[in-house]
Structures are given as C-alpha cells and as structure tokens.
Amino acid sequence: MDAQLDDEALESTLAESLADLVPDTKTVSEDEFVEVVGGALEAVGGTLLFKMCVQNQGEDQHVAAASVGDGGNRQFLLLTLPTGGGSLKVETVSRSSNPVAGIAAAYAGLMDVFKAAA
Does residue 2 form part of some domain? Predict the structure, then answer.
C-alpha cells in the first residue's frame, strides 16, 4: 500500500466487502469467522495477527486483529462478530473501545522481533 488510508475509508472498504459474506441468523463458528476475515484481508492486502473468542459487554464475540500496510504506513484493524450472528464490525484500533484493540500493535511488534531474529 503506497499511501496510508484514513481510518474511516479503511473501515468502510472492509465493511462493504464483507456485507454479503456474514451470516446474520445463525451461530457463527470460528471456521466461518476465519473464512470471512481471511477473504476481507486478502482483498485489501492485510495480514491476520490473531483471533480469539471473548466476552465483551455480556456478549460472546469472535475478534480478529489484523494489519494493513507496512512500516510507517501500517495500520491495525479490529474485526468483531457476535458468535450468535449479526453484523461484522470493522474498525481501526485507534478508534476502537474494545479492550482487545490495545494488544494488536504490541502483538505485531513482537512478531516483527521474532521474524527479525529468525
């Protein structure tokens, strides 16, 4: 990615590409969530950092952290989807209130160090 996308444009682009892929009336398995997130990240040249299932504000949800771009242009995203189905939420970690957002950049930094040491 040559230029850093602004937060809203990146969130909007990913959300639009996912609109038809997300089941909204049934329980969403981890495999289905990974498939949806993987497809979206492939479309924008992103990389999945990690995924987990957590409870946030009394709701179980799938959460994935991802990065788009490299170096100074790298942005971190948080993608969340209720395990009971519904809308996929895509947001940059800088705009997210989800507690998982705080570890995305740190995790990416750790992976960079491991990669350099290998």
Answer: no
pLDDT in tens, 65-85: 999 988 788 899 999 999 988
Domain that holds residue 51: 7-117
Report the distance separating Cα 22 and Cα 20, nearest Å. 6
Q: Is residue 1 one of the residues assigned to a domain?
A: no
Contact 76, 85 (CB under 8 A): no
pLDDT the model gives residue 8? 76
How far is it, in rounded angstroms, from Cα 86 to Cα 23? 7
Q: How many domains does the chain have?
A: 1
Q: How far apart are CA 70 and CA 12, in angstroms?
A: 20
Nearest to 52 by CA among 14, 9, 104: 104
- pTM, rounded to two decimals: 0.74
